[in-house]
Amino acid sequence: MVDSTVISKPQEVRISEVIELLKPRVMSLVIFTAFIGMIIAPTGINPIIALASLIFIAIGAGGSGALNMWWDEDIDRLMKRTRNRPVPAGTVSGKDARLLGLWCSGFAIFMLALTANFLAAGILAFTIFFYVVVYTMYLKRRTAQNIVIGGAAGAFPPLIGWAVVTNGIALEPILLVLLIFLWTPPHFWALALVTKEEYSLAKVPMLTVTRGERITRRYIFWYSLSLIPIGFMIAFSSIGGPLTLGLVIVLNIMLTLGSYQVMTRDAEKSASDGYIREKVLFKLSIWYLFVMFAGLGVESMLHAFYEPYLVWPELF
What is the DSSP string of the chain? Predict the structure, then answer.
């Protein structure tokens, strides 16, 4: 007779845990910016191909998220913000997360190449590699510039969307890549100020840990300022217009004021009131990116209406 105590049941994984492994919040941002990259492209695309491409881009983003959770299990377990994720919580094994991530990534790249073109699939493959290998496996634990350099991974989706439609690369999507690239550090550093102790406990060399809050606040402000020229370049490019220009002015004023308020107050006051301004800046940065890209989508639809009556200067 076999002792039942030595028989282990296979681990059951719920659909909700699989979805969480794919990082749906990050995936939604990838889908949205890739979609905007598609609709602002100068040529049209079959709606079925566009929808299928978005699905495969989303699967690829989810695969990289699962690989990130597999690799970061040890530090995720130490941080309050991440310790309830499926892998550190023990509801999904690291092996299963890795298998899911590899399968989703490979499937997405292969299917995007078949559905759209090899250029879009190649950029997606590079994005996944950069996020998983360059950022997650190397930069994140070795340098305070992890978010600065690693932010490039989250910046490529609009370029992928543009490549899906045009099978090419142009200045306009590169400007969008630069916008997200420069937006990423102040966005995440605002959160890192709130979760500084958790990063310190997990020995992740975020700027808040290695250089302190004062330097981090200063960097947030200067990176926020760097978004202004990029915004104006987008506004005066072929994908911009009067709506985009108005959004660039309003959104950058709001972000600059928010980052300045964060920069000019000390750490003790921030801690005493629960880092309210930092949390506000973090949420404001989310709205900044969403409204900017949504505005570009609306602008592309408005071009046909106002172009006969308005000659918009395209300087870039």
Answer: ---GGGPPPPPP--HHHHHHHT-HHHHHHHHHHHHHHHHTSSS---HHHHHHHHHHHHHHHHHHHHHHHHHTHHHHTT-TTTTTSHHHHTSS-HHHHHHHHHHHHHHHHHHHHHHT-HHHHHHHHHHHHIIIIIIIIIGGGT-TTHHHHHTHHHH-HHHHHHHHHHSS--HHHHHHHHHHHHHHHHHHHHHHHHTHHHHHHTT---HHHHT-HHHHHHHHHHHHHHHHHHHHHHHTSTT--HHHHHHHHHHHHHHHHHHHHHHTS-HHHHHHTTSHHHHHHHHHHHHHHHHHHHHHHHHHHHHHHHTTT-------
pTM: 0.91
- What pLDDT digit, counting tens, does each position of 56-108 carry? 999 999 999 999 999 999 999 988 888 889 999 888 899 999 999 999 999 99
- Determine contact, residues 63/104, Cβ cutoff 8 Å: yes
How far is the C-alpha of 34 from the C-alpha of 57, rounded, in Å? 8
Q: List, for the chain, all residue ranges whose pLDDT scores fall below the cut of 70.
A: 1-13
CATH topology of domain 16-169: Tetracycline Repressor; domain 2 (1.10.357)
What pLDDT shows up at residue 13?
A: 62
Residue 12: per-residue pLDDT: 61
Is residue 97 within 8 A of residue 86, CB to CB? The reply is yes
Distance, CA of 67 to CA of 86 (rounded, Å) = 12
